Amino acid sequence: MRIAIVTDSTAYLNREEYEQDNVYMVPLSVIFKNEVYKEEVDITSDDFFKMVRESEQLPTSSQPTVGELTTLYQELEKEYDAVISIHLSSRISGTFQNAYSVAKTMEGLNVYPYDSEMAGAGQAFLVKAAAKLARENHSVNEIIEQLDKIKKETAIYFVVDDLTNLIKGGRLSRVAGGVATALKIKPVLTFRGGEIIAYDKIRTKKKALKKIESLLEESVREKDYPIVATIVHAYCENEAEAFKEQMEDKFPDVRFTSSFLGPVVGVHTGEGAVGMSWTMDINRL
Description:
Elements: E1 3-8, H1 15-21, E2 23-26, E3 29-32, E4 35-38, H2 45-54, E5 60-62, H3 66-76, E6 82-87, H4 95-103, E7 110-115, H5 121-135, H6 140-153, E8 155-159, H7 164-168, H8 174-183, E9 188-192, E10 195-200, H9 205-222, E11 227-233, H10 237-250, E12 255-258, H11 263-269, E13 274-280
Parallel strand pairs: 1-2, 1-6, 6-7, 11-12
Antiparallel strand pairs: 3-4, 3-5, 8-9, 8-13, 9-10, 11-13
């Protein structure tokens, strides 16, 4: 059985990864002053954050339409028997629900929408694992079973410079965000049950990153499998690279990679967000 792996742009894989892993992508969009830009297609991450700096109006984001998903699945139907479609958390976007609706209408192709319950690097771990398993000719059930296992073992933590966009966009509760903003603290944020929550209240960004480091240290100490970790950032590459170098020095047995937060997630995190996600490294099991 030939199985295609589909994701959306919020996995933030680079072009080489899409090509090497044979992953298909449907983009989400950002809207600036009634102009719609498909992320990673019509607008780059760098261009987006430059536009935000110069704009007084906060952009919004939108999910892929039913039509866009239908077109992609119909194209894949020509070459594949099944599709596993992995998307950002259904608690923060309607992308998964649209994929689910389209899947029910496909007659010649079995489509299996999968809710990552995350975004960014956490979502990317699942996508890359699914692609690897598909290349190894595992069945749909075997792949989804493994994705469930990896998702359970995946941690994602990040800190943002300003919580305003997350609160306004409804991605963080006004109570938790309002308290943090009033106290001028830098909470460590995470995903729980597909929602973004404040994990810990920290006074400075430096201490928040130190907390994330301690959480990775705990995983390295307790887990009985090799770990892969990804450092992510929103338009602050130098800061993220310095953090990555620190982590590589301290955790030589962890395989580190880098990624970014693009326009759609960047709408909510704002410029300057830094985080890390880690999980079991299936390439070294």
